[in-house]
Specification:
four-stranded mixed beta sheet; D-Maltodextrin-Binding Protein, domain 2; alpha+beta; globular; Peptide/Ni-bd; SBP_5; five-stranded mixed beta sheet; Dipeptide-binding Protein, domain 3; 25% helix; 597 residues; SBP_5_dom; Extracellular solute-binding protein
């Protein structure tokens, strides 16, 4: 990394793609027209909101809040780990790697007109590291010891250890004004009690209005300070962005077909083939496209809660994996649109394959006595039911594993030595229950053949999230967001400490000294090669642990949209469909966009 003033950008490994003085990112249209109102539906499982604070544990934040906040740096979508100045116009990483100093662009100001200062940056970090922030947020900044105000426009982040990711983490931290939550009399609303107090940020959009906890409108800030920055050229082209939250997937899809909103990123294969059709598609008013992407798929699967004694034997967990008939699901329900996930880092070079490399062995060998010898061989191959394989053969293997673990079939059920039946619940939220019910029906039938009773329970999202935060579930479906350069977020997902912190990402409840050591190796990696070895080793250990019944992924973004929308000719490499639409698309006719309002 560069260590002198004048650094416009830094890279975790190697050099930034874009040179000094670049005019815009390759995947934007700098001449895109501005204007119009983009209307979107639920971007996730959220069906209502009750706060404007993204960073606290209780409650459900409104969608799109990140549009009003910015950070000192921003990444590009065609690189894996670079950071370009946004609020900051100079970046200096100390020669020992133990701190990074940012100089704030003198033009940067908040939505209330106040300049962005080093004191605001320090205030933001202090709040995000406090007990008032949600545990995953706190963990994200755990290795940043403090922010030091050098002068009104200069702030230094100091680190607990030398970690090449930390300067990027510091730069990507959302910055908000110290006046957020400040009452007229000078007293302050506690950070974790901020609800509908609008964030005071420096982003391109402001919250204009909201209603019924289901609709929120953002308006482009007419005084947005960063519109002419190279990292913002051709971006955020809509005058307004509106989110309408629907009660479930069925209502959301029907609303789109009725023309109530402008674009839909489709995650359900059946919908894409059978239900994203109708007169508006036939007329060309609505269109469908599949866009190539190079994102790692992340891990999506049935997560087992190891805090439940039922799931603590690895043979039991492997048996539950054997019972999922992906090939049948893909043929009968998914129209052969998906691929089976077989890694926590699938679709990237970070996926472990073949035998461990010398670098991986150097990390794994000290723990050989604590690891299954299979870890030192190839990664597990996911069960297959296509001929010559079969579900029956897989269930026979599963029955043998369960018997080894002390579970035998008698009196109409699979029982342990004390006669207790093998029963558990799969928890879901109601917004997606319609599409998950047929999937669960197949899985339940397979498990029933083993004598296992599985109940499927769908609850409203607020209760679902509350139960996840409290680790009050047996099994649920989770998708870990993909990352191109794994780092500290893996500690929240798999670290032993996070397993005991309610609201953390370690839903599995995994506590493993081996995993903890590999996580330390990931965050300490000084070269790309060292990082890859550490991630490969982690992938092997996690996959051989059978903590998740892996599900499936798509190698494309499926997007349906109104024909009034347009997008840049060059696609980014690493992106989410919804964020890409918001940040780089535009209306063909501007500024009215009348058909979309």
């Amino acid at each position: 990394m560069q260590s002198a003033w004048g650094a416009y950008a830094i890279a975790q490994y190697g050099e930034p793609k874009y040179p000094p003085g670049f005019s815009h990112f390759d995947y934007v249209n700098p001449a895109a027209p501005k204007g119009g109102t983009l209307v979107l539906a639920n971007p996730n499982r959220l069906t209502s909101f009750d706060k404007f604070n993204l960073f606290t544990m209780r409650g459900n934040p409104a969608p799109g809040l990140g549009l009003s906040l910015e950070s000192l740096t921003t990444g590009s979508s065609d690189e894996v780990a670079s950071a370009y100045g946004l609020l900051a116009d100079d970046i200096r990483v100390a020669s020992d790697g133990m701190s990074v100093t940012f100089h704030i662009n003198p033009r940067a100001h908040f939505s209330n007109g106040d300049p962005v200062t080093a004191a605001d940056v320090k205030f933001s970090l202090d709040m995000l590291k406090s007990r008032q922030a949600a545990p995953p947020v706190v963990l994200s900044y755990a290795d940043i010891t403090r922010a030091v105000v050098v002068d009104p426009s200069t702030v230094r982040f100091e680190f607990r250890a030398h970690n090449r990711e930390l300067p990027l983490i510091a730069g990507s931290m959302p910055v908000f004004s110290h006046k957020w939550g400040l009452r007229p009399d000078g007293t302050r609303i506690p950070f974790d009690q901020l609800a509908f107090e609008k964030p005071i940020g420096s982003g391109p959009y402001l919250i204009e209005s909201y209603s019924n906890a289901r609709t929120i409108t953002y308006r482009r800030d007419p005084n947005y300070w960063g519109a002419n920055l190279p990292v913002r050229a051709g971006m955020y082209n809509f005058e307004r962005i509106v989110y309408k939250l629907y009660a479930d997937d069925v209502a959301r899809l029907e609303a789109f077909k009725a023309g109530e909103y402008d674009a839909l990123v489709e995650y359900v294969a059946r919908n894409w083939v059978r239900r994203d059709v109708g007169k508006r598609f036939d007329s060309g008013e609505l269109q469908k496209r599949e866009f190539e992407q190079h994102n790692g798929a992340g891990m999506q699967g049935f997560i087992m809660n190891l805090r439940r004694p039922l799931f603590q034997d690895v043979r039991v967990r492997e048996a539950l994996d054997l019972a999922l008939d992906f090939q049948w699901l893909n043929r009968q329900l998914f129209y052969s649109q998906y691929r089976r996930i077989d890694s926590f880092f699938v679709n990237t070079d970070l996926q472990a394959k073949g035998l461990p490399s010398p670098g991986e062995l150097a990390l794994l060998d000290p723990w050989r006595s604590k690891l299954d010898p299979a870890v030192f061989g190839p990664p597990p191959v996911q069960p297959d039911t296509d001929p010559p394989g079969s579900l029956r053969a897989n269930l026979l293997k599963a029955r043998a594993l369960l018997a080894q673990a002390g579970w035998t079939y008698r009196d109409g059920a699979l029982r342990d030595a004390q006669g207790k039946p093998f029963e558990f619940e799969v928890l879901d939220d109601t917004s997606g229950s319609a599409r998950w019910e047929p999937i669960m029906a197949q899985y339940q039938r397979s498990l029933q053949k083993l004598g296992i009773k599985v109940s499927y329970r769908a609850v409203d999202f607020a209760l679902y999230q509350k139960r996840l935060d409290a680790f009050d579930f047996d099994m649920t479906t989770i998708r870990y967001p993909d990352v191109q350069v794994p780092g500290t977020e893996q500690i929240d997902r798999f670290g032993s400490k996070a397993a005991d912190e309610e609201g953390s990402g370690n839903l599995i409840g995994l506590k493993s000294p081996v995993v903890d050591a590999l996580l330390r190796a990931i965050v300490a990696a000084q070269t790309r090669e060292a990082l890859v070895d550490a991630v490969h080793a982690l992938d092997r250990v996690l996959m051989h642990g059978y903590y998740v019944v892996p599900q499936w992924y798509s190698a494309v973004h499926r997007v349906a949209f109104k024909n009034t929308l347009a997008w840049p000719r060059t696609l980014p490499l690493y992106y989410s469909g919804s964020d890409w639409i918001i940040s780089t698309w535009w209306f063909k006719t501007s500024p009215a966009g009348a058909a979309n309002q």
